[in-house]
Design brief:
The structure holds 2 protein chains of 2 kinds.
Chain A: H1 2-51, E1 54-56, E2 61-63, H2 67-74, H3 76-108, H4 114-121, H5 123-126, H6 129-139, H7 146-153, H8 167-195, H9 199-207, H10 212-241, H11 244-249, H12 261-271, H13 275-306
Helix pairs in contact in A: 1-13, 3-8, 3-10, 8-10, 10-13, 12-13
Chain B: H1 7-36, H2 39-42, H3 57-65, H4 69-100, H5 106-116, H6 121-134, H7 141-166, H8 169-177, H9 182-193, H10 195-211, H11 213-220, H12 229-232, H13 244-273, H14 275-278
Helix pairs in contact in B: 1-13, 3-13, 4-7, 4-10, 5-7, 6-11, 7-10, 7-11, 8-9, 10-13
Classes of the chains: A mainly alpha, B mainly alpha.
């Protein structure tokens, strides 16, 4: 009795003493990081917005109002770029999620060797994307890549097939490379989530005679739903922003077939020094990313509530 | 019982795993095969999978074709190390604050940090270029280090925070009752206990820093001697012909540092990085 009383007074004294300087101390601790982000991210972001109203080149700047935005709205090429970006994102994210789900299920199966398989899945996640893309450049090469080589020996194509030289095939080849980069992370997060599902749920279902497929559909999927949703958001952001993959494989070509919004922005601003027009594109990217982040957060909240994980 | 598979199911699982792994590992395998082929056989037509003249010649020739190769690898490691050190200095106090303290705008400021994750450098390149120019950092190591740190701080705070939350509060309270100051408690009580977490987060940051150099390097740095490997590799393309076999050899050599670190720590790393997926 005395013990409890004593410890509770101790705790309150600890708390009251703490709150005196806690506000200040907290900001003192996050201050440096905040300042750094403000300088390197927030200020440039504000600059981007300002520049988007300017005609800015190497020589100087001139205020032009909404002209840069108007040009984009009127440009058919830009409309195509937007559509292409969303198609790219949709295709790539869906494939990553599907492959990730299949991969995680396989790696979660209780078979000998699974620890090794788990390690083998990770390399694309760990290495620099630029280096992985050198491997894909080689694979997609018509003359000495194994893909074209196999296709030739199987008689699917007559001559060498250059994957990156045709509009259609270049686009889908870039998607495949992007999926390759993103799948390991998705797989491992799904796997971790699956391992966190309480075993007794499965056992109860098993005792009741539920099949594997049924257990997967009715236990695994609902249980890992919050992770599926958050992984879709993360993958969507990564894929939308994916620059190096496309830049190294095709630089946005052939004839613009792989030019997504981010590549278009880079080409406009950095390659052609049209800073104002590039900034207008960057602002549109920020608005789009912000919008669907909000939509996703909304969904995530809903999903969490729906599956009543009460885990918060 | 529940986990028992029939022979047929086992075969199916292994078959599917094999296909999955082939997809993941094919580029590495091809890079390795290409690095072993003599240059003139790389361009053999029709395509031939097996050669009888595989050799490791490219691994020694590459240092001569691109004399700065060693320098590039060193630059990569150096930049990643500096980024990691600086990032840790920023995130340790911040992560502690988010894990333990209660202060005004705590959630709002955390949301701002995480919002940074939405942008890649690509969106901010134009003004960032000017900021770095104003500070006189273009074409120095700092041009690649500074933005690198900024884009790793949010993830770092997030990861480290969940570690610090797991450290029992009682120890800090005991230290506090004994009259230790806040800073002292953080330095002498919390940090020593957090060492495993600090290592995992540090390695994760290092791997991220090693991986993200390309964009900053090609945009903010034109000095060849400072270029990190992913940018330097593209020197094998150019001049007269592309020495693909050496480029592959150099690429594989260049990922060795991260792969070694990763293989040693993969178990902790994966557990640490995916922690958010399991708990909450």
């Amino acid at each position: 009795m005395t013990d409890v009383a004593q410890s509770s007074t101790l705790e309150t004294s600890f708390k009251t003493r703490k709150t005196m300087s806690e506000n200040v101390f907290g900001w003192l601790l996050i201050g440096p990081a905040m300042l750094f982000i403000a300088l390197i991210v927030a200020w440039p972001l504000a600059e981007t917005v300002r520049l988007s109203f300017m005609e800015a080149r190497l020589g100087g700047e001139k205020y032009v109002g909404l002209e840069n935005y108007q040009d984009l709205l009127d440009s058919r090429k830009f409309h195509q770029t937007i559509v292409r970006t969303f198609y790219w994102m949709f295709l790539s994210v869906s494939l990553k999620l599907i492959l990730g789900l299949i991969g995680a299920t396989l790696l979660n199966a209780a078979v000998p060797g699974r620890a090794l398989f788990r390690v083998l899945v990770m390399p694309p996640w760990v290495i620099p994307i630029a280096i992985g893309m050198i491997g894909w450049l080689w694979l997609y090469n018509g003359y000495f890549g194994v893909l074209s080589g196999t296709m030739m020996s199987l008689g699917i194509t007559d001559g060498p097939f250059e994957f990156l030289a045709h509009k259609q095939s270049a686009f889908y080849s870039a998607v495949v490379a992007d999926v390759w980069v993103g799948t390991p992370m998705v797989t491992l997060f799904f796997l971790a989530a699956m391992q966190g599902v309480p075993r007794d749920l499965y056992e109860a279902a098993y005792v009741d005679g539920a099949s594997r497929w049924y257990r997967f559909r009715r236990i695994t999927i609902p249980q890992i739903m919050p992770v599926i949703v958050s992984m879709s958001l993360l993958s969507a952001i990564f894929t939308f922003n994916s620059f190096e993959i496309i830049w190294i494989l095709t630089e946005g070509g052939p004839r613009g077939a792989t030019t997504t919004l981010i590549v278009d922005t880079y080409k406009t601003a950095i390659s052609n020094f049209k800073f104002g027009q590039g900034s207008a594109r960057a602002v549109i990217i920020v608005i789009l990313l912000g919008t669907f982040s909000l939509i996703y957060l909304f969904f995530l909240n809903k999903v969490n509530r729906y599956y009543g994980n009460g885990k918060k | 019982m529940m986990d028992r598979y029939t022979k047929l199911q086992m075969a199916g699982i292994y078959f599917a795993v094999t296909i999955f792994l082939i997809f993941i590992l094919l580029p590495f395998f091809e890079m390795f095969m290409a690095s072993l082929r003599p240059l003139e056989h790389l361009f053999r037509s029709p395509y031939q999978f097996w050669s009888d003249d595989f050799s490791f010649q490219a691994y020694s020739d590459m240092w001569e074709t691109v004399p700065l190769l060693g320098r590039y690898i060193w630059n990569s490691v150096y930049i990643a190390t500096m980024v990691t050190l600086l990032t840790m200095i920023f995130i340790i106090p911040a992560a502690y604050a988010y894990a333990r303290l209660d202060f005004p705008f705590k959630n709002a400021s955390l949301a701002i940090f995480l919002g940074v994750n939405m942008f890649t450098g690509a969106v901010l390149l134009i003004p960032l270029y000017r900021v770095l120019r104003t500070m006189g950092l273009l074409n120095t190591y700092w041009a690649m280090i500074v933005p690198g740190v900024a884009f790793l701080i949010p993830t770092g705070i997030w990861l480290l925070r969940s570690y610090l939350e797991k450290i029992p509060r009682e120890l800090e309270e005991a230290a506090y009752v004994d009259g230790a100051s806040r800073m002292y408690t953080l330095r002498r009580v919390v940090l020593p206990l957090a060492v495993p977490g600090l290592i995992v987060v540090g390695v994760a940051v290092f791997i991220g820093a090693y991986a993200q150099q390309f964009l900053f390097a090609i945009t903010f740095n034109q000095q060849r001697e400072l270029q990190p490997l992913p940018a330097g590799l593209f020197e094998f393309i150019g001049y007269q012909d592309v020495t693909w076999n050496q480029m592959m050899a150099a690429a594989l050599t260049g990922i060795l540092p991260v792969m070694v670190i990763f293989l040693f720590l993969q178990k902790f790393l994966v557990a640490g990085l995916t922690a958010g997926a399991v708990k909450e």
